[in-house]
Write a structure and sequence with these properties.
alpha/beta, six-stranded parallel β-sheet
């Protein structure tokens, strides 16, 4: 088979030409990687709600035409100048945020918010030269969060690629590059529930169920799921959720309901909805003296968090997290190993599977609320 190194690759990709319009399978040209870049053959990708959110472009900067996709697994095809940590044949997870290993955040043990490679949803080009590596007949097709995995090949900054165990099944571990790690890490790295503790999870979508999975792994004795959709309750039992509360079933604030259920409040809470009211409830439902609430969901830009200062003086703690406090290159390989050791279960997150040519079905499943994660095979 002739080498593709240093040459333009022509391949199939799902292109979003306009906001909210079905993706179109096109033949695109993928340029060779430049300095500190890697060209990756995408083996499998998955649809995350963030892809749908920016594809709809309601209230976001519309950047089109664009190739979406950011949860994936692939194999390094070639590397650009200066790349020393990866070589052709390595198995990798592309990540929407990065780790340059040089900035203050990367050198800090307390942060994963890289100055150079932190998520940027408006940028549709590569950092090296401000140009796209995708084109059709010379017309640029823009990148999405530095990954653009709805393509058979993509060019990605080396700092946004986690090298993983080649024995790990790509069609399972691909979902670790966004939502699952975000929820899992929010519980294990930030909330840190002690064994035997009580944990409330607000929002039982993929991220919330990942947070529940983290509570299960940590050995929580009670995991209380809070959601407005009762259809999610049966599914959540697979993730260790033991009890359910639907705020619509009560005539008092849900934080009061939870406080009564748990003799003064839960030990830990993780909020995964983005609703400002859920955030306030998640904080106010934790026990005084030791309770910790962790915010994961992204609020609307005009939201304001309001609570009485006595909640803080009574030694309740409020924390936030980004990508579960995981450093992509340093920590994700260890999360993959958790799966390989059968400590972390991923199969139960995967509800559907389609080929790249049927990618619009994946969008339909998510828009109808039918899927947690739909796997999209890009390698045929």
């Amino acid at each position: 088979m002739p080498s593709t190194v240093g040459k333009v690759i022509r391949c199939k990709a799902a292109v979003a030409w306009e906001a909210g319009k079905p993706l179109v399978i096109e033949e695109v040209e993928v340029a060779p990687p430049q300095a500190m870049e890697v060209r990756v053959k995408i083996i499998v990708t998955a649809l995350c709600h963030t892809d749908v959110y920016f594809w709809e472009a309601k209230g976001q900067t519309p950047v089109f035409p664009r190739i979406f996709g950011h949860e994936a697994a692939g194999i390094v095809e070639s590397v650009g100048e200066g790349v020393t940590e990866l070589k052709p044949g390595d198995h990798v997870l592309p990540v929407f945020t990065g780790e340059c290993k040089e900035c203050r955040h990367c050198k800090s043990e307390e942060s994963n918010m890289c100055d150079l490679l932190r998520i940027n949803t408006d940028r549709g080009v590569m950092l090296h030269d401000g140009k796209s590596r995708f084109s059709i007949n010379g017309k640029p097709i823009y990148h999405f969060v530095g990954t653009s995995t709805f393509s058979e090949y993509s060019v990605i900054h080396v700092g946004c690629l986690a090298k993983i165990n080649p024995a790990a099944p790509m069609d399972k571990v691909c979902i670790l590059s966004c939502g699952v790690s975000t929820g899992l890490g929010a519980t294990l790295n930030v909330a840190k529930p002690p064994r035997g503790s009580t944990v409330a999870i607000f929002g039982l979508g993929a991220v919330g169920l990942s947070a529940a999975e983290g509570a299960r792994i940590a050995g929580a004795s009670r995991i209380i799921g809070v959601d407005l959709n009762p259809k999610r309750f049966d599914e959540a039992k697979k993730f260790g959720v033991t009890e359910f509360v639907n705020p619509k079933d009560h005539h008092k604030p849900v934080q009061e309901v939870l406080t009564e259920m748990t003799d003064g409040g839960v030990d830990r809470s993780v909020e995964c909805t983005g609703s400002i009211n859920a955030m306030i409830s998640a904080f106010e439902c934790v026990h005084d003296g030791w309770g910790v609430a962790v915010l994961v969901g992204v609020p609307n830009k005009d939201d304001a968090f309001k609570t009485h200062p006595m909640n803080f003086l009574n030694e309740k703690t409020l924390k936030g997290t980004f990508f579960g406090n995981y450093k992509p290159r340093t920590d994700l390989p260890n999360v993959v190993e958790m799966y390989m050791r059968k400590e972390l279960e991923l199969e139960k997150f995967i509800t559907h599977e389609v080929g790249l040519s049927d990618i619009n079905k994946a969008f339909d499943y998510m828009l109808k609320g039918e899927s947690l994660r739909c796997i999209i095979r890009t390698d045929g």
